[in-house]
Every structure is written in structure tokens, then in C-alpha cells.
Design brief:
It is a single chain. With about 240 residues, the chain is an alpha/beta fold. The chain has 3 domains: about 130 residues, FAD/NAD(P)-binding domain; about 55 residues, no CATH class; about 40 residues, no CATH class. Helix content is about 35%, strand content about 15%. The chain has 9 helices and 8 strands. A 3-stranded parallel β-sheet has the order 1-2-6, covered by helices on one side. A 3-stranded antiparallel β-sheet has the order 3-5-4. Strands 7-8 form a two-stranded parallel sheet. Helix 7 links the parallel strand 7 and strand 8. Helix 1 packs parallel to helix 6. The longest helix has 17 residues.
């Protein structure tokens, strides 16, 4: 079985794990978190209410909302929009409400509902708490994780669900490990096609990128010229 390591069990890491568990349940997913509980910051964000997203009404350009990350947000929202976000949580038992200030919140006004929805979606993933990753290296032998990982020589323990007490996310997992992890792995990335996404296309000809890369079909100057055109197109939006 192929194994995937996710460093950090915050909102992004846990959402990544949730999607992998849904799209590729055959993968063994392990999250390494330095803190004592997953999504600790998410549980208190927005005053404990969690502003999931907004409807972007009245925003003519993303630079108005994200002056330092406009381009990144354009790519992110194209892949997974604010509507996709609300739909995802609603389908997983978290009804959401749009407020007059155009902000989306869980209807319960409780950020822990978001935390628990993510925990349910990532069920089956191995979450290792109090386990900071302090190095990543490629071994000479081994599969995805090194032989050390297989033999559990990190002095870490697999986390097990604790008895539920109230709605505190710290009770969702337990661990006795405070040892740092050294991830020794071969370079075996999970590609787009392996998680059900279309292969990345060339900016110039539309063919799959891998073929253009191997054949060196385009020059650097051609690619730079196309990128400049795309930046100008986005700036004019």
C-alpha cells in the first residue's frame, strides 16, 4: 500500500487528508502534528464561530480582498470555489448561513462543527500528535517511508480515538509521543491523475505537460511570453 505523509494537522492538512480519504481510500495517510491536538487554531477562529468564506459580492477584483495573495487565490478559487466550500460542508452535516456582511458561518455559530466534520471525513487517517517533523530525507532503500518508519523506530505511537467528552477536539485523538520524527522517504508524489483530476495541460499547445517537457517542445522565451499574456489578462479582469 502506498503511503502519504502530511506534515501538519491544521485546517489545510486535515482537509487534504479528508479529500485523500474520499478520493483514494487505498492510500495510507499519516499526519504529523507538533501540537497536542489537530486543528487547534481552527477551533477558535472567528471568535469560536469560524468564518468559512464569503460570497464575494461587490468585489470587482480579488486584489481588493487579497492584496498580497491575489494570484494564489485566483488559482485556488478556480480549483475549489467558495460555493464548493459551502457545498462540501453542507453535504457533510454542517448547514451554513450567509450573514448580511456577506460572510459564511456554520449555522450553529460553532467552529467545532467544522472541526468535527473534517475529523469525520478523514476517518481512517493516522494522526500522530506531539510529533514535530524536524527533517525530511531520501533513503537509499525502502518504500515510501523508510524501514525506520515501518519498524516504528521514531518512538511514536499510533493514535487511537479517545472517549468523547463534550465537543473538545483534543479528545478526538490521543498520543503518548513527544519524540520528533525524521521522515526518510523516496520521492513518490501523488499525481493529479491519481486523485481523479485531469492531467496538467501545456500553456501553449494544450497537450499534457509531461509530453511537452520530455520533448522540449517550447522555448523558455515562448513560455515567458505566454505567462506575461496571462498575467495581463488577469490584470484586466
Amino acid at each position: 500500500m502506498r503511503r502519504v505523509a502530511i506534515i501538519g494537522a491544521g485546517a489545510a492538512g486535515c482537509f487534504c487528508a479528508a479529500l485523500l480519504r474520499e478520493w483514494r481510500p487505498d492510500l495510507a495517510v499519516t499526519l504529523f502534528e507538533a501540537g497536542a491536538r489537530p486543528m487547534a487554531k481552527l477551533a477558535i477562529t472567528g471568535g469560536g464561530r469560524c468564518n468559512l468564506t464569503n460570497d464575494f459580492q461587490g468585489i470587482r477584483s480579488l486584489s481588493e480582498a487579497y492584496p498580497r495573495g491575489e494570484r494564489v487565490m485566483k488559482r485556488a478559487l478556480k480549483a475549489f470555489s467558495q460555493d464548493d466550500t459551502i457545498r462540501w460542508f453542507t453535504e457533510r452535516g454542517v448547514p451554513c448561513v450567509l450573514q448580511e456582511d456577506h460572510c459564511w458561518f456554520p449555522q450553529s455559530q460553532n467552529a467545532l462543527d467544522i472541526v468535527h466534520a473534517l475529523l469525520r471525513a478523514m476517518k481512517g487517517a493516522d494522526v500522530r500528535l506531539k510529533t514535530p517533523v524536524i527533517s525530511v530525507a531520501q533513503p537509499v532503500v525502502g518504500n515510501y517511508f523508510s524501514q525506520d518508519f515501518a519498524k516504528n523506530q521514531f518512538s511514536t505511537t499510533s493514535t487511537k480515538p479517545a472517549h468523547k467528552k463534550g465537543r473538545d477536539p483534543k479528545n478526538q485523538f490521543s498520543t503518548t509521543s513527544t519524540s520528533p520524527a525524521h521522515l526518510n522517504m523516496e520521492v513518490m508524489p501523488v499525481g493529479r491523475t491519481e486523485i481523479g483530476l485531469e492531467a496538467r495541460r501545456c500553456l501553449l499547445c494544450g497537450n499534457e505537460v509531461r509530453y511537452c517537457m520530455r520533448a522540449k517542445s517550447h522555448t523558455v522565451s515562448e513560455l515567458l511570453a505566454r505567462i506575461e499574456e496571462m498575467v495581463k489578462e488577469c490584470s484586466d479582469c
